[in-house]
Amino acid sequence: MANVFVVGAAGNVGTRLVSKLVKGSHHVVAMHRKEQQQQDLEGRGARTCLLSITETDVPTLASAIKGCDTVVFTAGAGGASEELTNKVDGEGLEKTVDAAIAAGAKRFVLVSAFPDAGRGKKISDTFENYMRVKRLSDAYLAESELDWVILRPGTLTIEEGTGKVNAGYAIKYGDVSRDNVADTIRAIIDNKALTHKIIELTDGDVPVDEAIGKFV
Ligand SMILES: NC(=O)c1ccc[n+]([C@@H]2O[C@H](COP(=O)([O-])OP(=O)(O)OC[C@H]3O[C@@H](n4cnc5c(N)ncnc54)[C@H](OP(=O)(O)O)[C@@H]3O)[C@@H](O)[C@H]2O)c1
């Protein structure tokens, strides 16, 4: 059983993850930024923490994380302006890494982006900046002292999860349901020995626990 602090808990991946972690007997502290999200997250069985990653500072965030051994970062500005992407996906991740270290949390799971996203398409400056920031965030976490796992999902869908994925160090690009992403994060948390891995993820044919178990 882990004590998990989730940044971005009210999001599409975050809410699914909260439910799966609670079902798996983990304790969850769900960080969210709007008061109206509290009831849903508590209904899923989480304790809640009302904070905005852009407004908070490292000491405040560290106090909120205190008591948790694992942090998941699945927040994102959702393709908004470059400024907001830099603040949430970039500086927000860096603050969370620093706060996790200050709070004594050892494990950190980051939902990043697949390097091939956008390949072959005409991409906007905003998207190019998003990929740049995600990459810098990966590097920031990978250089830290934490036991990290970086997950790079393909294009996220809202299809019902199949419980089956393709997970590897280098795989072909594709879609992955947010439900399967949440299940994969749950499996990473269940595999305590899994650390220092960058995992690419799409929907696939292998049951999630088997797919993640092979990295240990
Ligand atoms: N879309 C794709 O195809 C794709 C592919 C690969 C990776 N990803 C990454 O996957 C992650 C999760 O995706 P998703 O679909 O779950 O995204 P989502 O539904 O947009 O969830 C992101 C969460 O981050 C929260 N957030 C934004 N700004 C915040 C702030 N200042 N303080 C605290 N929380 C804040 C949002 O809060 P609110 O609910 O209040 O808005 C939201 O709950 C994102 O990091 C995204 O970059 C996406």
Automatic annotation (TrEMBL):
<dbReference type="InterPro" id="IPR036291">
    <property type="entry name" value="NAD(P)-bd_dom_sf"/>
</dbReference>
<dbReference type="InterPro" id="IPR016040">
    <property type="entry name" value="NAD(P)-bd_dom"/>
</dbReference>
<dbReference type="Pfam" id="PF13460">
    <property type="entry name" value="NAD_binding_10"/>
</dbReference>
<protein>
    <submittedName>
        <fullName>NAD-dependent dehydratase</fullName>
    </submittedName>
</protein>
<feature type="domain" description="NAD(P)-binding">
    <location>
        <begin position="8"/>
        <end position="191"/>
    </location>
</feature>
